[in-house]
Amino acid sequence: MDVLKITPRGYCHGVVDAIRIAKHVGEETQGPVHMLGLLVHNTHVTDEMQEHGVKLVDAEDRMAGLDKIRDGTVIFTAHGVSPAVKEKARAMGLTAVDATCSDVIRTHDLIDRLVGEGYEVVYIGLRGHPEPEGAIGHGPGKVHLVQEAADIESLEVHSEKVAITCQTTLSVWDTDDLIERVRLRYPHAEVHNEICRATQERQEAAVEAAKEVDLVIVVGSTRSSNSKRLVEVVEKKGGKPAHLIDTLEEIDPEWFRGVKRVGVTSGASTPSQLTRKVIEFLQELEPPA
Ligand code: SF4
Catalytic positions, please? Predict the structure, then answer.
């Protein structure tokens, strides 16, 4: 089959840094080393980290996750944690290693500054995802989560000074839409769109490529926000079907019935060797007529 390799795709700088830090700490540190939640949202990367001596404490709620650790070292993942989680780790006597992506840290710094200046912040993000949990923890009671339009009506903002910001890995277009909706309610709100460049570039490339293919395959894990958003933007903005697969075995040849050209991209936490295998498989595939 004719395969369009969509670029950019795969690892972003935040994931590369987090993996480098965790591998180094896992190999060089005496005593138990834990990652507090998935280091990055990819099952293959998590398995690989465990081979390097980093145990997984699978907890989307980071505070609760800390209770499962007795001693040793804890690695905060690329998604970042709240100051309260850092404080609790310190109080427990754990050695903390911070693998938070620099783009997430920038959002934390932004929220710290805004809250310090008396703003309340409307934060667009996914409920239950660790990144919003960490970001909102930078302004307890002052940062309000909005996941969908219905959340805007029930917002209770008490300050005259309002700012809007967001999770780094959302859909560019859905977030623009939600920002506009929040601004209908708070026309004076300051907007700080924090979708990271890696997310933005991968989405724009996938939507552009959708014009030239019949179908797009996104290689990534179901827990990866940016991978799931790639599927969404291809379908909603690019107007083509898309499938998310974590492994080669999940490919259903029936998807390719009548397909002449397929595009392949991958989430920011997907190892490139995995995507390469998928591309090679598809190049050899004879689609059903
Ligand atoms: Fe950082 Fe963006 Fe990569 Fe997340 S997707 S780790 S915010 S660069």
Answer: 131
